[in-house]
Amino acid sequence: MTLSLTLAFVWVIVANVSAMIPSKDNYWTRAYFLIGVGVPLLGYVTYENGPVWGGIFLLAGASMLRWPVIYFGRWMKQKLTG
After folding, report:
1. Residues in contact with 53: Cβ distance below 8 Å, sequence separation at least 6, in sequence order
2. How far is Cα of residue 5 from the mean position of the Cα atoms in its chain?
3. Where are the domains of the chain?
4. Residue 47: helix, strand or coil by DSSP?
5. Considering the entire predicted model, what is its pTM?
6. Is 29 helix (H, G, I), strand (E, B) or coil?
7. How many CB atoms lie within 10 A of CB 11?
């Protein structure tokens, strides 16, 4: 297994564990951290393992961080139609 996939699996585990810990800000601070680490990691996974593994990691990250993705989609829809 390559280094990038190992780091991606560690990211998935950290994301799951951080979701289990109670939070006063509805997990947004952790979500910002996970996004900040996950985006460069997504590029690294895609570069080292190809677009299929990059797409798999993108879907895994989007499923775990679904609320930021939903809010971003709503914001884009408002900007495009508003």
Report:
1. 5, 45, 46
2. 14
3. 3-81
4. helix
5. 0.83
6. helix
7. 20
Residue recorded with tokens 């951290």: 33
Q: For 24-82, what is each residue's pLDDT tens digit?
A: 887 888 989 999 999 999 999 999 999 999 999 999 999 888 888 899 999 999 999 97
- 5 by Cβ neighbours in 10 Å (0-12 / 13-18 / 19+) ranks as middle
For the record, the structure tokens of 17 come out as 């564990």
| C-alpha to C-alpha distance for 50 and 8, rounded to whole angstroms | 14
Which candidate, 52, 63, 60, 51, places its Cα nearest to that of 8?
60
Neighbours of 33 (CB within 10 A): 13
Question: What are 16's two structure tokens?
Answer: 């799951």
